[in-house]
């Protein structure tokens, strides 16, 4: 989740220095720093279930599942942020300026919250879709059993798919199918 931006623009190097000293995570968007606030128990439960389900599905393969502690860096759009779930296939590529930031996410998942939904659907989605390695961007509702998948086509355009109760969602980028009901169980 995202809070108000800092009033002063900072370089990426300064952001990294500050981020190492902070107790809470921050996003950096073209020199502006935004605090990220904690989520609800429902958000945490959905996130944990997705990590387990996807992790079990890709175990032993070439893909790794990361929590929201992994920073994603896109130089193309001048952003450093944290997704709720990131999947990287093949070796993790690190930003040369920031060894803790991945530059090659394959699948990016955000669990929507009232305070972040507009940003997650708007500007953040645009940033993620400009990362060449991202094949799928997924939005997961926490107030209803609904998963939205934005999938990059071979021609570079994006397709939208939605799954609800009693349906399954296929993450083509990692060869994984998950029942929507399993995400929201419990």
UniProtKB/TrEMBL annotation:
Pfam families: Uma2. InterPro entries: Nuclease_put_TT1808 (IPR012296), Restrct_endonuc-II-like (IPR011335), Uma2 (IPR008538). Gene3D superfamilies: tt1808, chain A. Residues 13-171 form the Putative restriction endonuclease domain. It comes from Enhygromyxa salina. Coiled coil: none annotated. This is Putative restriction endonuclease domain-containing protein.
């Amino acid at each position: 989740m995202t809070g108000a931006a800092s009033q002063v623009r900072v370089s990426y190097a300064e952001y990294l220095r500050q981020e190492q000293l902070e107790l809470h995570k921050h996003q950096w968007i073209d020199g502006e720093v935004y605090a990220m606030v904690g989520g609800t128990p429902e958000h945490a439960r959905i996130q944990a279930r997705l990590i387990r389900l996807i992790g079990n599905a890709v175990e032993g393969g070439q893909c790794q599942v990361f929590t929201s502690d992994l920073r994603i860096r896109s130089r193309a759009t001048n952003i450093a942020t944290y997704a709720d779930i990131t999947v990287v296939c093949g070796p993790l590529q690190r930003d040369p300026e920031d060894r803790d930031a991945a530059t090659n996410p394959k699948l990016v998942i955000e669990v929507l919250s009232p305070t972040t939904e507009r940003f997650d659907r708007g500007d953040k989605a645009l940033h993620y879709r400009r990362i060449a390695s991202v094949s799928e961007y997924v939005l997961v509702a926490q107030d209803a059993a609904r998963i939205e998948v934005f999938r990059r086509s071979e021609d570079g355009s994006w397709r939208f798919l939605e799954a609800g109760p009693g349906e399954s969602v296929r993450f083509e980028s990692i060869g994984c199918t998950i029942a929507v009901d399993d995400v929201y169980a419990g």
